[in-house]
Every structure is written in C-alpha cells, then in structure tokens.
C-alpha cells in the first residue's frame, strides 16, 4: 500500500487531527527523508506530526510581500502555520495557499517555488499540485511554478497538476508544460437519486444531497426574469438556471432545473434538488396545467454502479493545448466529482470531519496516490516513464465497458482533448510493457522547437544552453501521444519506446486511424545500444509515421498508436521578484544561501537591508532567491553575469455573395433584363420564384435599397390581398412596388407593455414600416432580394447580392422596434408577442407563401401553448404556410435551441466556405494569418502585449497590441493604439472596429506572437489588408453561436431541423447602421440563416404549390448535406470543436437542388400536431386555446415517438421501443425503396418492412415500424445513426438519435 512512498502536497495545509492522518500500523519513517515539521499557530510539530504526517511546512512571505503588509487577518483568514482552514487539501505537507486572498485560496509563485525547493531537498517521491494560473499569457519559461516543477522532474520527482476547472470550453487546460502530468476530472459511477412525486402521482428522479425528512408542499414556478412572482413562502419552487441572483425567502425547497455541470451542493436554509431541463420542463408543464400543484420530495439515496457511469466532468478544462498545440493536454483523467475525504472543521461542507468536494484538484490527488504506488514498485522509473505507463494503459471506456461521454455543450463521446489517454487504470499501469521515456535533453529540445531562445532556455535549465541546429521538431518529442495540429499534406515523426516488460518479446502495431488520415508506412527500427542494461532495456524501437491525404485546416485529426506485445521605471517597490541563478554550484545549502545574501548585499545599502529584503533562498533543487526589490534594483540584478532570470512574482488561484454559390444555387443572369435561358435547375424551374410571396416578420424595410427594385418583374400575383400602409417617412405609393408588395407595422402591444407613447427622443425609430435597425432589411434581402451586381464591403466579399428567390415578392411586417433595453444595454430590437400575433394573423389573410421569423424568446420557460407567437405560427402552418424560425444565438451550449415547436422549421447557422485572411508579419520575418475586415492601408509599427488584468502595461500608443480574449476592449481603445490583435476562442464573428484595425486569431497563433514579443527586445509587426478567399481550404462549420439541441421542451422532437449559412452574410442594411458601407453590410446569426431557408422554400413552393409545410421540412431534412458540398466533414465550432451531429445541424446543411425532388416525404397535418400536444400532456383546454375550437385528446394518449417527423429521437430508451412512421411518394408512381440502417453505437435498429413498394397513384402513402433496442447497461449520452430509404436515385435519409436511460427503482 505504498508504505515507503512519500507524497508531497503543495496546497492549503492540513488539519492534523483528522483520522485519515493516523499512523496506526506504519513502520519507521523512510531513512531517505530529510524534511521536517515546522511549528506555528495552532500547530505543534511534536504532537501533530507522526509516522503518517512526516512533513509540514508553510510559506507566506511571498504573499505578504505581494500584499505589502503583515499577516492581516482581515485579509488572510487563516492560521499562520501548516494548519488548513480552507479544507482544500487531503494530504498536506507544503502550505503555499492561504484563505481569504482569492475566493478559493491565494498562492504566490514565490511561496510555491520555495515549497518546490524544499520538497526536492526533503525527498518526496511525487508532488501533487492542485493549483493553476492564467493561460495562455503565461509560458513555461516565465512561470516560476513551471520552472520549479521542471527542476523537480529533472530530479526524478513526478509533478502531478490540475487541468483546471474552466471547462467545457476548448483551449482552457492549464498546467500545460510537457514535464507536468496534467489531470482532468471524471465523475464516479455513483449518484444520489432523489425522488420527486407530483400531485398527479407522476414520479421523477433528480439528484441532491438532501437528507432531511420528506417534504410535502405546494409547488410554484419562479420566473427569474419577472417581478410578478406570487408569494412562495412555504412552497417548493422550480427555477430554471439564471445568472440573475434570486432570493428564496421562506421556501421549503428549490428544484433547480439547469444544464448539467456535475456540481451538487447542500443548501443550508432549504432543500435544493438538481434536475436537467427535460425534467424541469415536465414539472413546469404540470404547474401550468394544474390549479393547485403540489409536490413531495424524499431524501436522497446513494446509488453505485450501473446505471451510473463515468463521464468527463463539465467543469474539467479541455484541450487543445493553447501554448503548444502539439503537446497533448490533459494527459490523463481520474475521478474528481463528489469525492468524500477529510475536511477542516471550518469548512461549511464538513460533517463529522468529512465532506464531498469536486474539481480537478481532487482528480490530481487520485493520480498522485497511484503514482506513489507505482514508484514503490518501480523506483527507477523517470517521471516521463510514469506518465507513459498511465497514458498507454488507461481505460478509453468506463471500467464496465461503456463509452465515456464528455459532459458539456453538447455532451459527446470523450476524446483526448477531454481526458488525454483516458481514465487512469492503476493495475494495468503497473505493467505497461513499453514506455515512452524522456529526460532533460528532451525537454530542452522541446523548448528549442517551441521557439524559446537560448537565454530563455538557459534561464529555465539553470546553466548555459544552446539549441541544436537545425531546430528539433516538436512532433518528435517522445510523448505517449501524437498530436499534429497543422497537417497540410504529410509529415514524418519519430518515437522511441523502452521495454520494461519481459526481456524477449516482439511488438506488432495496431492503428486506429483518424478520419481522413491514411497511414502509408510505419517503420520499426532497432536502435538498441550495448550500454543499456539488458534487464531494464532489451531494445529501443523507433517509430516513423507518414501521413498523407490533405485535409482542411480545421481541426487536429488524431490517430492512436498501440504497440502490442506478442504475449503481453520613481522606483516603486516591486513585490519579491525571484532571482533565478540556475543549477547549484555547491551542495551545501548554507553556502548557497550565504552566496545569495552576498549577492543581494552588493546591490543594496547594507547587510541589514539585504537580510530584510530577502524572502526566500532557494538552495536545494536549484539556486535562487526571492527578495523585495525596486524596479531599478531588479534591473541591475538582472544584468549580473551570474543571474539567469529575474521574474516578477504573481498571485495564482487555487483551482451572400457567396451563400448561393456554396449551396449550388448560383447559375443566374447578371441582371433581370438579361436572358434567363442560362439559368438551370431549381431557379430555372421556378422562374427564380417570381410567383412566390415571402412574408418577413422583423424590423421593417429600408425601401430605397437597390435590392427592392422591381426591374423585370411581372404583375403582382392576383391572390395577394395585403397592402402597404403609409407612416412616418414611408409613402406607400412611392416606396412599394412590384417587389415590395406589402408593408405593415405593429407597435400597440409594445407600447402597452412599456406603458408609454411612441417616443423617438432617446433612440432613432420611425412609426412606420421603415427600418431603423437594419435587421429586417438584411433578412429580407437574403430571402428574396433582387439582383444587385458588384457589391462589396470595403472591397471584401465582392459579388452579386441577391436573395434565394430573387424574383419573389416581399411582404414586410414590422413588429420589432429600436428601444432602450430593460437591462441597460442600450438600443436594441424589442418585439411584443401581441404585435407578432397580429402580424401572423395579417400574413395569413394577405396570402404569403412562407413566413420568415428571425426572432426567438426564452426557453424553456415559454411553451408552445402559452406563447402567442407560437400560437400564431401554428395557425399559419395549419393554413399551409411554412413558418421558418431562427434557432437562436446562445450556442454552443446544449439545450439552447429556441423556436422548438414541431410546426416550426427551425434553422441553425453554419459558416460559408469563405474567409478574410489577413497577413501578420513579425519583425523576425515570421508570417502568420489572422482574419479581419481591415482593408488598409498597411500598418507597420511596434508590437506590445496588453495584459487585461494588469495596471502596468506601459505606453502602447502607436503600437499594435496583442490582447487575449476579454469581454471589453477598454481601456485599450483609449490608448491611441495603431491596431489590436485579438487572440480568442473561435466564435466565428469577425467585426470591423471603428477606432483602430482589429485582427482576430486563435490562441495558437496568439501564443506564437506572445512568445515573439517576450523573446525580442523591440518587437515589431506589419499588418496587411485583408483579402477574400473562397473555397478550400475554408469549409463549412456549424457556427459557434448557433444554438444547439437537444430540445429542452420536448426532447423527442429534433431541433434544430436544418442548417444554412449565417456567418458574415453580405446584404442590404439601413443607412443608420454603423456597420454598413454603401447600403450593405456583413452580419452573422441564425437571423441570417433563417431567410436563406425561407428563400429556398419560396422556390420549392413555386414548384410544389400543394405541398404541406411538413412536406417542405421533410424534403429539406432528408436531402441535406451531411458533409460540406466539397465532401469534407462538417465540424461544429464550440467546446470542443467536434464533428457535427443532429443537435448541431438537424438533418444537415440545406441542399436546395436535391430538396426539389426528394422522392419520399414524411408528411403531417393538423391532427398530428394535436396528437403531439396530447402526448406532451397538455390538457384539453390548453390545446383548444391553440386550435381555436374545442378539442379532446384521444384515449389512449398518443406516443410522441410516433409523430411523423423526418427524424427519430428517443431520449430515454431503457430496453426497447417500437415506433411508427409513414412516407408519401412524391416521385415516380412506380417506385421501390429499400431500407439502409446505420445504427447508433450500442443500439440495434430493426425496420419492418425493409422494402416499400409504391405500385400506383392510389398507393402513395406507406407505413413502417422501427424497433430500437439498447445494449447499454448504464445511462448514456446520445448516440447517432440514420435510416435511409433508397430507390437507387433518391436517398431519403433521416437522422436517428438515441439515449439510454435506465430507470432507478426507488
């Protein structure tokens, strides 16, 4: 049990009286131990240390110097000793973090460095460090803790560090130096189910730490955005997650319905239960359909094993590595959720000395303990060998054999950026067979390959070091992983393995290839050396890897190598910058310290000043000291020939013009007066939609825009019954024409809501259909704008602007108005649902063919039967008018998709295959490409880094400034900068800054620029004007902002339905829009993708005027692209970037040409929608309100799974389920279709019959059943597949999404 192992923990101290530190049964302290216990406040070394707790030290001088004061208990609420008040540590020896400094404890790098130094001296076997800093602003050669950890590792001590708790966003992983073993966090196979019984006897299981008596009380919904919540006293309250602080006065309990975050907490003044959105919406529906709702809540129980299973925790930080993308981080994962261990009695979570805690801090300690065992077994293994053993033997599934999911946005199958090698497997790690080993030269080669200069590396290593020429390849670092972040065509890399298993063995190779990678050759070369001791190393294997087949520059595509054995400037005092001298020149620590004092004395006034200034002497693992110095003193010391580095101390925290080309709908004449004989396909067949009428419910129209010219258009369709209404600055006779045939406005509902008359004193607005905001003008352009050639945005994105149906007629219904927002964010669009309902009503009367609605509300508080706009849309659909709605812009979080009613066609947003590359040339001639809307002239000036958290950034006037992502450009924009390079997480939004040019890059490029700045005395940069690039290597992705499924109101209804381009779409704008240029501008959002689909439906309806709205949806979904039009995979931008699935893009990217001839459609009518509402549990009166007449649900209640959607979504299969679908033949009369099934992982799909024969006009509708059966024994996330009916010409494909949910028997 590791009795000879010594674990060092750098953390917040220890509570020595805890039972877990008893030394019962332990033998003598290992003789190699050179550490000690240091007495202090409430800590007696003689009493509190024993054969278990053999070392206890504390370090606070660095923190005090940083804070410029004494041990102030109003700030540092802690014991001045190794005693722990935070309760963060489990086994503590080196206290470097202190309560009260940061929300979770503050630690200075100077204190940490001293702790590392002592730990190296004392003889620990492994160091556990559950602390992290900023990333990527902090690089390996500048961070004191990274330098100290480097020296520990070079002395053979593995340093295990936390990955951080800022997940699930990509590129958030901290502690990314390759000598650190970085640990992610997973859940346990344990849960705390809590039964909720509603007054209608419906039972749910949520999760909580509630252990009190049963609660039986009234039940109410608390709307966090409303000021009109009734008295909640004595009731149980349902709340949907909100950033708004909520006061729960006198409530009996709270049910928090929220996105999964894996964090359970015990509320002290009331019972708090945690549920997901699906359960929350079911409870909300019960509340809204019951006169006096009640609820009963039982205490939680403990469930271990199936169906609970391992997941990567939502909070666990994710890769890729933002400092060095070729170094995989995290390395490994371990349990870190609700871990029961000893706590300080001052911790509010403590009960009888123990408590549950969560974070990568916990998972780090798990791995540290395992390494202690491994070091006992293999004392000569290097830290790299230990890491290799853990990574190569880890579980890639749960121990029970189930897939490991990564909780987040959306939940997905875990990959190496979530969990590194996988879930740590201690037993297998003890006998790994082969290891990928490394030593100090490997780390030096890494720093050389990463571009650090010789002086920086020398500062790190502690002695003069020169990089080899040529520079080593970072891909050749001998890691137990291969990460290629920028493969263009092919690359060759090398690995070496050391045999730690049987002496005589052979090795084969087994490749699991990444998508789009071809492994052409792998050569195993024998490079064994006679100097190796045969029993330890039989042979070393060099592995060469050659990858070909070029892929787009979108994402590292990974392959896994598995080697299988045959049988197994005024001087202001600066807080203690540590002075780093490198390797010790003397083994006597006292002489080393004396040399430090002597050096300091030579720069200060007296010996006494030197002693006062000195905070720490680092004399064990390396030579250096921490001292309180002014800037000039620090500069002088840095010039001393024996000084390698002076590093400031820091405080760390305890842990269109292109759209239609892309969619192949672009063969158009240059103007309406041109001949249309060259037009082909759908545009030709529909005369570009000349008879279609598109209704746009939005912010109105700017009628003078060229896109609303009616050149070449024939008479207005005779069925049109609408009109143009005159108003402020809008003359119906002048401004309407044969293109803009309808223009109305609705404002009474908004004025009634706001309690005021129409005023334009604070914001610009017109009491008419004239568009002040520009949003409606933009969306109307995309849907049905006329052809306007040679349009660009300052020269970018040049081409012909037009709508999807360029000859369609447009009817504008203005319901959204430029108002001051209630949240104080300034002017913006406000739309009243009462006004929207009237607009729907008028549009139905007027005779539109399709309605485009780029508006959305709150979810999941608003349900289909309570939202007037949903009711209005229902009536439009029941009259045969498709309603196309925006999915919303709250992505990439899961369950954020809006407009989720099944009668709506909900649209997600993708990028175009277009970018605006902007060349950045650094002073060292290195050329990088960001993206921008900067159109010149070229900028060439100094380059500086702006630390958004620092007050000491220096003068940046006239310079180009690098800024890592921040919520505000202030105060950069006030400093007279020449330009700003924003390094940030990808969000697909490229803006044109008005005060200065702004260039957007990702973290990888930003860290390259930062490294250049930090290693150059006078860095410079030159920024060239952006250009327009269309086609490869740019490709289609689901936009980061696009809202995602699953549907939070009705999980069995797939949303979004379809995706379309919605990023940087060039269209007309209001001249008042500051983002416009010559009447046009680029805009992004699902507001833009929605009218793309509306325009396509206008064409389709011209071709198929009798199709129902459901038939149009089916045609779009079943024929969509699942890859980009160029055949490349479609990724979903977000956290992390991943291959897109139906919750990202529904059926896929809309394909207009194929949708015109789908072969079969999944059709529906009003009765289907009524059955849906019945299956959802809406009562008869609620449904009757929607329908507009008395309606009664059938008995038995219909199954929601039988709704005839062009998708199958099963949110809670336990064993097996059978559902029904019907298809209508809209192709050739005599057709035979065969079923092609792609089953989701672990799910068996069976279709009956497997062949559909359409033999006559009378036999156009056929039904079939689908049986789904799960083999999973645990609760999983969603797995995806498809069902395709094919006749050899038409492939009618629908997405299948299945989630296993095992009911817990209470």
TrEMBL record:
Q: Which UniProt keywords apply?
A: Glycoprotein, Hydrolase, Protease, Serine protease, Signal
Which species does the entry assign this protein to?
Brassica campestris
Q: Which PANTHER family match?
A: PROPROTEIN CONVERTASE SUBTILISIN/KEXIN (PTHR10795)
| Keyword Glycoprotein among UniProt keywords | yes
Record's Gene3D superfamilies? 2.60.40.2310, 3.50.30.30, Peptidase S8 propeptide/proteinase inhibitor I9, Peptidase S8/S53 domain
Name the UniProt record assigns to this protein: Uncharacterized protein
- Which family is this protein grouped under? Belongs to the peptidase S8 family.
Q: Any idea where the Inhibitor I9 domain is? A: 579-655
């Amino acid at each position: 049990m590791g009795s000879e192992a010594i674990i060092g923990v750098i953390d917040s101290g220890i509570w020595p009286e805890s039972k877990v530190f008893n030394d019962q049964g332990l033998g003598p302290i290992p003789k190699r131990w050179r550490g000690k216990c240091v007495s202090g406040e409430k800590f007696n070394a003689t009493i509190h240390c024993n054969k278990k707790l053999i070392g206890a030290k504390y370090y606070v001088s660095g923190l005090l110097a940083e804070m410029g004061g004494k041990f102030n208990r109003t700030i540092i609420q802690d014991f001045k000793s190794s005693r722990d008040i935070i309760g963060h540590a489990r086994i503590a020896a080196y206290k470097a973090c202190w309560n009260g400094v940061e929300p979770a404890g503050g630690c200075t790098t100077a204190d940490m460095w001293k702790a590392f130094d002592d730990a190296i001296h004392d003889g620990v076997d492994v160091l556990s460090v559950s602390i992290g800093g900023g990333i990527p602003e902090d690089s390996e050669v500048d961070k004191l803790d990274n330098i100290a950890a480097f020296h520990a590792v070079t002395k053979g001590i593995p340093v295990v560090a936390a990955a951080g708790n800022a997940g699930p966003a990509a590129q958030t992983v901290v502690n990314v130096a390759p000598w650190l073993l970085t640990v992610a966090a997973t859940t346990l196979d344990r849960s705390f189910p809590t039964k909720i019984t509603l007054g209608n006897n419906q039972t749910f299981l949520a999760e909580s730490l509630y252990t009190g008596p049963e609660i039986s009380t009234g039940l109410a919904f608390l709307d966090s955005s409303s000021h009109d919540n009734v008295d909640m006293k004595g009731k149980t309250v349902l709340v949907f997650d909100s950033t708004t602080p909520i006061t729960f006065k006198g409530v009996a309990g709270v049910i928090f319905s929220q996105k999964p975050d894996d964090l359970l907490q015990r509320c002290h003044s009331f019972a708090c239960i945690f549920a997901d959105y699906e359960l929350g919406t079911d409870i909300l529906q019960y509340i809204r359909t019951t006169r006096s709702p009640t609820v009963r809540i039982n205490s939680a129980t403990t469930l271990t094993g199936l169906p609970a299973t391992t997941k990567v925790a939502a909070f666990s930080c994710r890769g890729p590595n933002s400092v060095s993308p070729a170094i995989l981080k995290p390395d490994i994962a371990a349990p870190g959720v609700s871990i029961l261990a000893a706590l300080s009695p001052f911790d509010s979570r403590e009960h009888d000395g123990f408590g549950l805690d969560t974070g990568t801090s916990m998972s780090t300690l798990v791995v540290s303990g395992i390494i202690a065992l491994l070091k006992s077994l293999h004392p000569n293994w290097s830290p790299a060998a230990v890491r290799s053993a853990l990574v190569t033997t880890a579980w890639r599934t749960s121990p029970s054999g189930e897939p490991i999911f990564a909780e987040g946005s959306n939940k997905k199958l875990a990959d190496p950026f979530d969990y590194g090698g996988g879930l740590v497997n201690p037993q297998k790690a003890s006998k790994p067979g082969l290891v990928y080993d490394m030593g100090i030269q490997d780390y030096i080669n890494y720093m050389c390959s990463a571009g650090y200069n010789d002086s920086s590396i020398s500062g790190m290593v502690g002695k003069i070091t020169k990089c080899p020429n040529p520079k080593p390849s970072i891909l050749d670092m001998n890691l137990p992983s291969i990460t290629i972040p920028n493969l263009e065509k092919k690359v060759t890399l090398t690995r070496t393995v050391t045999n730690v298993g049987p002496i005589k063995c052979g090795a084969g190779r087994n490749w699991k290839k990444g998508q789009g990678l071809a492994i052409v050759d792998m050569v195993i070369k024998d490079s064994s050396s006679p100097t190796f001791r045969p029993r330890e190393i039989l042979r070393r294997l060099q592995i060469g890897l050659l990858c070909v087949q070029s892929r787009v520059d979108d994402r590292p595509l990974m392959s896994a190598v598995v080697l299988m054995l045959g049988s197994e400037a005024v001087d202001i005092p600066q807080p203690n910058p540590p002075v780093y001298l490198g390797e010790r020149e003397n083994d006597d620590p006292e002489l080393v310290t004396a040399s430090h004092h002597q050096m300091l004395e030579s720069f200060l006034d007296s010996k006494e000043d030197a002693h006062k200034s000195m905070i720490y002497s680092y004399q064990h693992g390396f030579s250096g000291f921490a001292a309180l110095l002014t800037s000039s003193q620090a500069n002088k010391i840095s010039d001393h020939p024996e000084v390698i580095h002076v590093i400031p101390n820091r405080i760390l925290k305890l842990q269109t013009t292109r759209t239609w080309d892309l969619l192949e709908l672009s063969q158009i004449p240059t103007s309406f007066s041109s001949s249309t004989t060259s037009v082909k396909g759908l545009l030709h067949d529909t005369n570009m939609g000349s008879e279609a009428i598109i209704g746009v419910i939005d912010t109105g129209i700017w009628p003078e825009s060229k896109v609303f010219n009616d050149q070449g258009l024939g008479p207005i369709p005779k069925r049109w019954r609408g009109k143009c209404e005159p108003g402020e600055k809008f003359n119906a006779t002048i401004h309407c024409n044969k293109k803009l045939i309808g223009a109305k406005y609705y404002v009474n509902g908004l004025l009634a809501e706001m309690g005021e008359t129409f005023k334009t004193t604070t914001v610009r607005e017109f009491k008419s259909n004239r568009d002040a905001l520009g949003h409606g003008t933009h969306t109307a352009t995309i849907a049905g704008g006329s052809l306007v050639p040679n349009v660009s945005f300052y020269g970018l994105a040049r081409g012909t602007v037009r709508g999807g149906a360029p000859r369609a007629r447009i009817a504008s219904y203005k319901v959204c108005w430029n108002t001051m927002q209630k949240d104080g964010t300034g002017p913006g669009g406000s739309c009243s649902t009462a006004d929207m309902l009237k607009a729907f009503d008028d549009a139905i009367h007027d005779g539109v063919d399709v309605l485009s609605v780029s508006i959305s509300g709150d979810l999941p508080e608003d349900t289909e039967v309570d939202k007037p706009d949903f009711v209005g849309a229902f009536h439009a659909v029941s009259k045969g008018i498709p309603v196309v709605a925006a999915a919303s812009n709250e992505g990439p979080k899961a369950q954020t998709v809006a407009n989720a009613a099944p009668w709506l066609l909900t649209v997600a947003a993708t990028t175009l295959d277009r970018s605006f590359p902007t060349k950045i040339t650094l002073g060292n001639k290195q050329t990088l490409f960001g993206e921008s809307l900067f159109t010149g002239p070229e900028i060439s000036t100094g380059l500086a880094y702006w630390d958004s958290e620092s007050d000491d950034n220096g003068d940046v006037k006239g310079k180009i400034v690098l800024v890592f992502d921040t919520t505000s450009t202030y105060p950069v924009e006030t400093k007279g900068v020449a330009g700003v390079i924003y390094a940030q997480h990808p969000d697909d939004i490229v803006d044109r800054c008005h005060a200065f040019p702004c260039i957007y890059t990702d973290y990888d490029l930003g860290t390259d620029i930062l490294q250049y700045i930090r290693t150059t005395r006078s860095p410079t940069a030159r920024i060239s004007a952006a250009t327009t690039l269309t086609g490869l290597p740019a490709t289609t992705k689901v936009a980061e902002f696009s809202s995602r499924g699953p549907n939070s109101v009705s999980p069995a209804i797939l949303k979004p339905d379809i995706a379309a381009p919605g990023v940087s779409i060039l269209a007309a704008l209001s001249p008042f829009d500051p983002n416009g240029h010559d009447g046009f501008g680029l805009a992004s959002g699902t507001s833009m993708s929605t009218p793309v689909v509306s325009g396509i439906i206008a064409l389709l309806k011209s071709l198929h005027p009798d199709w129902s709205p459901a038939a149009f949806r089916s045609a779009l979904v079943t024929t969509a692209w699942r890859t980009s039009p160029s055949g490349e995979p479609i990724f979903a931008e977000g956290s992390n970037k991943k291959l897109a699935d139906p919750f990202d893009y529904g059926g896929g990217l809309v394909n207009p040409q194929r949708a015109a001839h789908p072969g079969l459609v999944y059709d529906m009518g009003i009765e289907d929608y009524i059955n849906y509402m019945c299956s959802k549990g809406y009562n008869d009166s609620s449904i009757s309100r929607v329908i507009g007449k008395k309606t009664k649900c059938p008995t038995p209640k219909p199954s929601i799974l039988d709704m005839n959607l062009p998708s199958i979504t099963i949110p809670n299969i336990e064993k097996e389920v059978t559902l029904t679908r019907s298809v209508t033949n809209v192709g050739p009369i005599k057709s035979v279709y065969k079923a092609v099934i792609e089953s989701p992982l672990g799910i068996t799909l069976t279709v009956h019959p497997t062949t559909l024969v359409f033999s006559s006009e009378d036999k156009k509708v056929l039904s079939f059943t689908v049986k789904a059966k799960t083999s999973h024994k645990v609760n999983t996330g969603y797995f995806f597949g498809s069902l395709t009916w094919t006749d050899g010409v038409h492939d009618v494909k629908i997405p299948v999404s299945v989630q296993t949910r095992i009911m817990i028997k209470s």
